[in-house]
């Protein structure tokens, strides 16, 4: 299924979708690893651990090192390092600014649903001067469940009084595509993110497509605010 109708709401993942934050995460992670006498990791490895939130990131790193019992002190140290510089090298992916501006002009509501701790999301949005575009921002710790649970997506829909089938979820990972499928929400996968396999972002259960640049979606956006009337 690839047919998508113009939405009333677009929900975005953050890391790997709106922003390339891997360099800042790598700096925080490698500072953490050095403090613990663990080897620094290349960017390619860091990207493999992004997507499940900070706790999952640390769990995967420690599993890689065979140090699962170090979780509490490692997580505390990683968060301390990441809070210090959450957006120093983080940039928007090409096409993001043009697409969210298009949605704004079309009166289509926008939200961010990330598995990243909420306290780290706002500094990034503010640093990039895009926080004003999003009416709802949820982190992985904002609700009792996070992606791939559909609950964060459904929570946004309830808050904005828009049906899931009239919305899009845009993301780069299997957690994003599974959350959309579980919510019965159309999905847009981005090929430039951190997913290891293209199949991760092609959920067969819902209308979907995959793009290399979000501006490729602009022709699908209707300027009519009552597209589903």
UniProtKB/TrEMBL annotation:
<comment type="pathway">
    <text>Organic acid metabolism; glycolate biosynthesis; glycolate from 2-phosphoglycolate: step 1/1.</text>
</comment>
<dbReference type="Pfam" id="PF13419">
    <property type="entry name" value="HAD_2"/>
</dbReference>
<dbReference type="InterPro" id="IPR037512">
    <property type="entry name" value="PGPase_prok"/>
</dbReference>
<keyword id="KW-0479">Metal-binding</keyword>
<dbReference type="InterPro" id="IPR041492">
    <property type="entry name" value="HAD_2"/>
</dbReference>
<dbReference type="InterPro" id="IPR050155">
    <property type="entry name" value="HAD-like_hydrolase_sf"/>
</dbReference>
<dbReference type="InterPro" id="IPR036412">
    <property type="entry name" value="HAD-like_sf"/>
</dbReference>
<dbReference type="InterPro" id="IPR006439">
    <property type="entry name" value="HAD-SF_hydro_IA"/>
</dbReference>
<protein>
    <recommendedName>
        <fullName>phosphoglycolate phosphatase</fullName>
        <ecNumber>3.1.3.18</ecNumber>
    </recommendedName>
</protein>
<dbReference type="InterPro" id="IPR023198">
    <property type="entry name" value="PGP-like_dom2"/>
</dbReference>
<dbReference type="InterPro" id="IPR023214">
    <property type="entry name" value="HAD_sf"/>
</dbReference>
<dbReference type="InterPro" id="IPR006549">
    <property type="entry name" value="HAD-SF_hydro_IIIA"/>
</dbReference>
<keyword id="KW-0119">Carbohydrate metabolism</keyword>
<comment type="similarity">
    <text>Belongs to the HAD-like hydrolase superfamily. CbbY/CbbZ/Gph/YieH family.</text>
</comment>
<keyword id="KW-0378">Hydrolase</keyword>
<keyword id="KW-0460">Magnesium</keyword>
């Amino acid at each position: 299924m690839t047919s998508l109708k113009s939405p009333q709401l677009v929900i975005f993942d953050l890391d790997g979708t709106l922003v390339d934050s891997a360099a800042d995460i790598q700096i925080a992670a490698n500072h953490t690893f050095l403090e613990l006498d663990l080897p620094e990791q290349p960017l390619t490895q860091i990207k493999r651990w992004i997507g499940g939130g900070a706790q999952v990131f640390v769990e995967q790193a420690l599993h890689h090192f065979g140090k699962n019992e170090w979780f509490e002190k490692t997580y505390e140290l990683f968060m301390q390092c990441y809070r210090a510089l959450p957006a120093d090298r983080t940039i928007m992916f090409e096409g993001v600014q043009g697409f969210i501006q298009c949605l704004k002009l079309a009166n289509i509501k926008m939200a961010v649903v990330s598995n990243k701790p909420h306290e780290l999301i706002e500094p990034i949005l503010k640093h990039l001067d895009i926080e004003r575009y999003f009416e709802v921002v949820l982190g992985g710790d904002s609700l009792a469940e996070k992606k791939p649970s559909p609950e964060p997506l459904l929570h946004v829909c309830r808050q904005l009084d828009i049906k899931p089938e009239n919305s899009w979820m845009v993301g780069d990972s299997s957690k994003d595509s599974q959350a959309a499928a579980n919510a019965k929400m159309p999905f847009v996968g981005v090929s430039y993110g951190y997913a290891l396999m293209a199949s991760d972002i092609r959920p067969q259960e819902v209308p979907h497509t995959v793009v290399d640049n979000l501006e490729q979606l602009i022709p699908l956006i209707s300027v009519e605010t009552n597209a589903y009337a």
